[in-house]
Amino acid sequence: MTTNVLDRPAPVGSLLREWRQRRRLSQLELSLGADVSTRHLSYVETGRSRPTSQMILKLAERLDVPLRERNALLLAGGYAPAYPEHDLDSPDLGSVCAALRQVLAGHQPYPAVVVDRTWTLIDANPAIDLFTEDVAAHLLEPPANALRLTLHPDGMAPRIANLGQWRAHLLGRLRHQAEATADVALAELYRELAGYPCADPEPEIDMAGPGSVVVPLRYRYQGVELSFFSTTAVFGTPLDVTVAELAIESFYPADDPTATYLRTRRPAS
């Protein structure tokens, strides 16, 4: 049985060069940052020198390569992965999941969700029903995607008062994420979402409006227009691939009327 050359994994040196170019670093800049000689780095990238596992990890750290891709680099170099990847229901991640649930509960009465690297919805607090109440059922079927849920015509999109602005913000964020991680799934998601119809004008860059300090999400709910801003939280020092790819998206009221409304409403049970 013959193996197609296209099926063979790329050499680790070529992969490292791609990551360096993606980060827009010269060989000199990377060699200084990683404390290796430019000549040795050149030999590694061209395949003239086989890097040790420690060298691969040192370069990957300097290049801010995601843990999942660091494992891929190690495999390409002929080494075992360095970072474990546990399922969320694994006992090893019990304390992590407990912490996530505590954060979600503590964020009530404001909406918050936990997503993974491709924006798959992992968990949410009850206040998220404010966003999901009138969306199509098929968008909530597992594995539900938070960005698809937001921008799909059958999702939140018809109720977003500033859809063009919020859509441009989310697509820009997703594009940067796809470029930074070289994640094919994110690139495919971007192409899908960018193809959704939008009648509102979309700004090319985020510009502050009168009194604005962040891009707001203005959402119509039961005859009321609510205004939110969002924050993203990640684990600070993850050593597990799954944990490194989790993020908590929290929504806060951007004005006093929204805060008052959220404090007095009761999420659907």
Please describe what this structure looks like.
This protein is an alpha+beta fold. It has two domains: 72 residues, lambda repressor-like DNA-binding domains (434 Repressor (Amino-terminal Domain)), CATH 1.10.260.40; 174 residues, Beta-Lactamase, CATH 3.30.450.180. It is 42% helix and 11% strand. It is built from twelve helices and five strands. The protein has a five-stranded antiparallel β-sheet. Strand 1 and strand 2 form a beta hairpin. Helix 1 crosses helix 3 and helix 9 runs antiparallel to helix 10. The longest helix is centred in the middle third of the chain and has 19 residues. The chain is elongated. The N terminus is likely disordered. InterPro entries: Cro/C1-type_HTH (IPR001387), Lambda_DNA-bd_dom_sf (IPR010982), MLTR_LBD (IPR041413). GO terms for molecular function: DNA binding. It comes from Actinocatenispora sera. This is Transcriptional regulator. It holds the Pfam family MLTR_LBD.
Which parts are unreliable, with pLDDT below 50 for 5 consecutive residues or more?
A: 1-6
CATH structural class of the largest domain: Alpha Beta
Overall pLDDT level: 92
What is the CATH architecture assignment of the largest domain?
2-Layer Sandwich
Written as H for each helix and E for each strand, in order along the chain, the element string is: HHHHHHEEHHHHEEHEH
From the spread of the alpha carbons, the general shape counts as elongated
- Please tally the β strands and state the result: 5
What is the fold named in CATH at topology level of the largest domain? Beta-Lactamase
Content-based structural category:
alpha+beta
Going across the biggest sheet, name each strand in turn: 2-1-5-4-3
What fraction, in percent, of the residue positions are helical? 40-55%
Work out the strand percent. 5-15%
